[in-house]
Write a structure and sequence with these properties.
This protein is mostly helical and 332 residues long. The protein has a single domain (3-320), classed as Formate dehydrogenase/DMSO reductase fold. Helices cover 76% and strands 2% of the residues. It has helices at residues 3-30, 38-48, 52-55, 57-69, 71-80, 82-101, 109-135, 155-179, 182-211, 215-222, 227-230, 232-249, 255-275, 286-289, 293-320; strands spanning 278-280, 284-285. It has a two-stranded antiparallel sheet. The protein is globular.
Length: 332
């Protein structure tokens, strides 16, 4: 068994789960400016209140797994993205504080509403910038990061940052469609349409930019016979997009959310196509960055025990709090 591939799969699962699960609650916060009424904002926060902090478990699993299973990649990538990484963590902290304080402070609720949106915006933008900075490549010299402090900042990384913000807004809008009713839900349908179109435009722009970002990316997508498989990703994306907009027109309540998740899954698949077999683009492969096999095996035992527990309590939380949000119920 190739434990490096197993751990790559586990890290991929953790990253994808975080993006999908924390993405929609960050997206709900990003939509606050479109809902100025206090009652609507209360319902929006109540829709994510039972699950938002549990969603961030996957971020810890992803970061800890990278450090433990691929220490060389961790040592190279972290200095390359220190600034946006710290910004992301501060944004998440500020978002969490605002989430709690908003319900306790009546006179300064306006401030905590803005903090809730602002922290989520910083976190989402930073995540996209980190992704873009890694995709565009980092300078490596003798197993160490050799680039500068501002190498992460580029038009491509900013494009990725904006794309993630818009994509999270799409997830937030479709989540509100599924969890709310009445005028709030109807406005979410409209926002989902705009966010869906913008997300598809961003996916197309980032995909085209990525293919021509490095020659190796181009070959992984267009060389024969690999193109016979890679071509299925944009084809499935197109089919999913058509189904998504059809579900909005028919006023489906659950389908838009799950189709939006499918768009993220396809985008993640495209990312894997571009990167594999490197974990630091064109510099360090998965196997070069991997920890010793004995260490990977030891950690895998813990992962096999803990991962089902995490999945179980996450699924249970979503099951318990399924259904619509009652506007008369408050978060305490």
């Amino acid at each position: 068994m190739d434990l490096s591939i197993v751990w790559l799969g586990l890290l991929g699962l953790a990253v994808l789960a975080y993006v999908i699960l924390d993405g929609f609650d960050l997206g709900v916060a990003l939509l606050f400016p479109f809902y100025p009424e206090r009652g609507d904002r209360d319902v929006m926060m109540n829709s994510v209140a039972p699950v938002w902090d549990g969603n961030e478990t996957w971020l810890i699993l992803g970061g800890g797994g990278l450090f433990a299973a691929f220490p060389l990649a961790y040592a190279v990538l972290m200095p390359a993205v220190y600034a946006p990484l710290i910004a992301m963590l501060l944004g998440l902290v500020f978002r969490g504080v605002a989430f709690e304080y908003r319900w306790r402070s009546q006179r300064r609720r306006w401030f905590w509403d803005r903090a809730f949106t602002g922290g989520s915006l910083v976190a989402a933008l930073s995540q996209g910038i980190i992704l873009g900075a890694i995709l565009q490549g980092v300078e490596v010299d003798e197993r160490s990061y050799a680039g500068g402090w501002w190498d992460w900042l580029s038009p491509f990384s900013l494009l990725c940052g904006v794309s993630v913000v818009i994509g999270y807004a799409l997830l937030g809008a479709t989540w509100l469609i599924m969890k709310t009713e009445g005028p709030l839900q109807q406005r979410a349908f409209g926002l989902a349409g705009w966010a869906g179109g913008a997300t598809l435009a961003c996916v197309g722009a980032v995909s085209l930019a990525t293919v021509f970002l490095q020659e190796s990316y181009y070959h992984r997508w267009f060389d024969m016979p690999a193109v016979l498989l890679t071509a299925q990703v944009p084809l499935l994306t197109l089919i999913t997009a058509v189904a998504f907009f059809a579900s909005l027109r028919r006023r489906r309540e659950r389908a838009p959310f799950f189709l939006a998740l499918a768009l993220f899954l396809l985008s993640f698949t495209g990312l894997m196509v571009s990167l594999y077999p490197y974990i630091v683009p064109n510099s360090i492969t998965i196997w070069e960055a991997a920890a010793p096999r004995s260490s990977q095996l030891f950690m895998l035992v813990g992962a096999v025990i803990l991962l089902p527990i995490i999945i179980a309590y996450t699924a249970y939380a979503y099951w318990v709090f399924r259904g619509k949000i009652d506007p008369n119920e408050g978060y305490h």
